[in-house]
Amino acid sequence: MAGKEDLKLLGLLVSPFVIRVRMALSMKGLNYEYVEEDLFNKSELLLKLNPVHKKVPVLIHNGKPICESLVILQYVDELFTGRAILPTDPYERATARFWAAYIEDKLCPAWIGILKAKAEEERAEKVKETLAAIEHVEVAFAKCSNGNVFFGGDSIGYLDIVLGSFLFWFEALRRMYGLEIINTSKTPLLAAWAERFGGSVEAKEVVPEADKAVQYANKLHAAAAVKLVSSE
Amino acid sequence: MAGKEDLKLLGLLVSPFVIRVRMALSMKGLNYEYVEEDLFNKSELLLKLNPVHKKVPVLIHNGKPICESLVILQYVDELFTGRAILPTDPYERATARFWAAYIEDKLCPAWIGILKAKAEEERAEKVKETLAAIEHVEVAFAKCSNGNVFFGGDSIGYLDIVLGSFLFWFEALRRMYGLEIINTSKTPLLAAWAERFGGSVEAKEVVPEADKAVQYANKLHAAAAVKLVSSE
After folding, report:
1. What are the phi and psi torsion angles at A193 (to 5°)?
2. For a tag site, which of A178, A211, B54, B64 has the least CB within 10 Å?
């Protein structure tokens, strides 16, 4: 099917959610037009195609939009041949979906909360939540990987993409706040996995340097400060 | 496959999330052992099988647990023959997953927030969020149903189950706070759909009377009051 499809992706280079989609498209060997969005000045196309959330990524397939990274990953996996993204066994697939939801609903708001926190106390609370969540994910790795090197077995799969997309942001948080979310003492399995993920061809293609995330965080903080001052 | 399977469900009669699973199992013609949990005194089995969230529903299939209602629905649909729960077309399936996530992430915390609110101001805020979210779902119904009577077409499907499981709680909120979340003026499509859903065989089998939800809410409020008093 690859090659004949009209695929366009509205994205943002530092968005983990966009990185997930780019990794999936790459794993399926699909070509696509990539359009960088400016989230400080969203395009008419983005607002039209994702009126509910007004967020990237939006994948446009033969003119039809698909939104939300986990939905897009499953769509791409179900529609296109090539390397499987989700596990093929139904029970393993259910387990992967369970942990993807956990990463999305618990881990993600926690670490993004560290960035968004307006006071030290709030930041400390979000750090605590992030570290508690990542310890659950450490246990998940042991269960899902079955002794293999990735969540997905011997190669990158759904959960590797879902969690791996956060890693350069975790490195940015280390540089900004000295925080080690994944480390060899508390989460040794994930620490080894993160090394492998970072060294993989799939990640190297689309994951930016952590500096880009630091720069984007500074831009967000500056914009929030301006907003605060102008609303006073 | 039905009949040979060992299926056990840890549930709670007034839980919308459990109702979803019971509807899905029923649509597949599957027999299962139902075990009512007491969430004020959770069983060892529940804590062992869902150590992360410690919540119902937990479906135990041939000894293996599956947690989280949306994950279970997809598992049941993928594994068992019988009536399809999710749409079969990949784009329609992506759309259904998008709206299921919206209902779960935006609508659900909003209406549960109405119940949990400790002050009138907080309750008013949650009412506002609930009404904003349901208006989005009204638009979703027009798109997903394609002029048919259910989200899933001419019979109940994934989104019907996901949203329909809330309806008796919406009725409970009407009785408790005079609040009409779905009504003929603002959400006429959903109002007509809710009538049809309530009258369906699938719903009648497992959806309790709204009074049961009111009673459970009173029990939760009483427990919260006791907790508040005892922590003073």
Report:
1. -65, -40
2. A178
